[in-house]
Every structure is written in structure tokens, then in C-alpha cells.
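Exercise: predict the structure of this protein bound to 2-oxoglutaric acid.
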Amino acid sequence: MAHHQEDSNTLPEATTASLTIPVVDFSLYSSDPSECARQIGEASQNIGFFYLKNHGVPQDLIDRMFNCSERFFQQPLQNKSKHLIGPHNIGYSPLESETLDPEHQTQGDLKDYPADADGRTLIDRAYNVRKYSIQDDSTVYFTLGDEAERDKVGVFFKELHRLAKDIMQCFAIALQVPESTGGRHFFDKRHGWDAHSGTTLRFLHYPQQSGDPKTPLAGSHTDYGSITLLMQKDIAGLEVQASRIHKDVPWVSAPVIPDTILINIADHLQMWTNGLLKSTMHRVVYNPQQLHHSRYSIACFIHANDDTRLEPIPSPLITQEMRAEGVEFEEGRNMTAGEYLGWRLNRSYNYSVKSV
Ligand SMILES: O=C(O)CCC(=O)C(=O)O
Ligand SMILES: [Fe+2]
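Solution:
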């Protein structure tokens, strides 16, 4: 593996310089778009993560969504499992404690989660909403039957999607995509709200439990789409691997920074740029504060339209010789975004995923 990383075409990979996650002031997007694009482009080529402040998504809306999530997950198991996740990747996805991979998943003491009649212990993990499901029963079930709140979930999801499209313009500016091939709209026009895509809003819950500091609660992975927008609340736990090539670099924690949204580059952008932008490995580890408190986060996985090919984009900064490391990159570069999502999900769930 990674034989091509050793030669003189090795990617420009920052090491020590990239061990912090920068904070970008997104008010620059209006006042000085090229500077905004420069800062976002730099972070994306280095650590692959950046915080955005002044992102324009109202904080009271974010708080309201966290409140919804808490109300939902604090219920007993039988009230949460009507819309179980299935082929459409919508609804509740618990983990079954017996099937956890001991190396990569929670090892905490979950005695607050009693076994059900079949002897299984189910542990909360997430609830997924997709563009197609914002008006559905599955979303109103998540808001405990409150239709006004259900509508807010839709408003929130669209706000995040709008922000993602603005961020996409910064990538296109930073990558100098020629006007003749779409210019600054190269990426955002491939992310239609009304188009079929894997874009998913995921409410995550890491239950209160005992455990050892640094025990992985979510194994290391990259995200499958273009970018991910992450909101964390109160309790940190996310860690980022600053380099996929230099495995000995330390994991960097991504603390909770109030009033920011954390953005990370995901696999599509890595493939579109032949590895110039980094889809960085990350994981969630046990935080001792979880002895007394649940950890909540909200991730919005933005995916390109299903029919978009994940091939290198027109940019003078991207050359054919560049390659990103990883099986995802080798497999995915011949696929469309829709095919790639199906391939990744089928590797992580034990049912076949169909596109919606
Ligand atoms: O919960 C978090 O902080 C991150 C979750 C994550 O990386 C994911 O769901 O892909
Ligand atoms: Fe992730």
C-alpha cells in the first residue's frame, strides 16, 4: 500500500505546521471572498478541518435542535425504535452491544442500558434525517410529534446546506477553477437541494457511561461525502489525525468552540482534487465528563448529486501524478457520488443500501 507516496511526486504534506485546527471568520466571505477562500483552501490542504465563526446559522436554531435531540434520546428504548434505520439510511440507528468491535467501539460500562427480552443491549448512536424525509413521519417521530419542531428541522437542514454551498464556492476560488468550466460555482452547482444525493443530517448521542479516557467511542474513519458540518455541545471527544501518511503524528483534539461550526473535508473533495484537499481520519474518544453527562453532536454530511463523477476537476493546481492514500480513493475515483455512498454504506452496515 501507499508505494506511490515514497517517490518524488509525494504530495505536499504539511506535518508540524498543520497540528492545529484553524478558526476562519466566515464574515470574510462577503467582505473579502478571495482571502476567505485562501484561508479555507490552506486549512483544507493541511489538516482538512477548520472551524467557522460568523457562519450565519442562528445559534438559537442550533440550540433548539440540540434540545430536540436530547428530548428524543432521553426516552426509553421502546419509544425510539419505530423508525429503525434501513436501506434508505433514515431513522434511528442503535448499536447492539454484543456486536461491537472491541478494538474500535465503546467499551464503557453501560449498565443503564438493560438488555431487552431477547437479551440484546441496544445503545443509542444516531438518528438520521434526509432531504427526502424532512416532511415524513420519521422526522415528526424524532420531534416527538411536534410538527412545528419538525418544520424547524427542515429549516435547519436547509440553512446548513446553504452554508455548505457558500463554502464550496471558496474551494472553487482557491482551486482556481476556470470560468469556462464553472468557475466559483463548479462545486455548488453539483450540490442541488432538489437533486438526488446522499446528503444526511445526523443527530448523534453518546450516552452517559463510565470508561477509560481515550477509549474510542467511534472508530477512526473518513466521511463519505464532500464536506461535513459538525456541531458539538459542551463535551469534547472528537480527535483528528493530522496526517494519513505520517502515522506517528499525534491525534489532535477538536475542542468545543462556542458559536462555531466545525467543517471537515470528506472523500469526494479528496478524489476531485487527487488528494490535494485532505479527507482526514477522525474518531470520537471517551471524555471523563461522560461519567455524568451524555455527549451530543449534530453532523450534516453534504454529498454531491448522485450522478456526479468523482474524477479530478479542472484546476491548474491539480496534476495527474498526485494521489491520495487509501483504498477509498483507489476504489472511489471510478465511481459516481451515488455509487460511492452505496459502496461505503454496504461496508459498514449489514444490509444492502438502495438509493432513494
Ligand atoms: O460526534 C462527533 O463529534 C463526530 C461524529 C462523526 O465523525 C461522524 O458521525 O462521522
Ligand atoms: Fe465523521
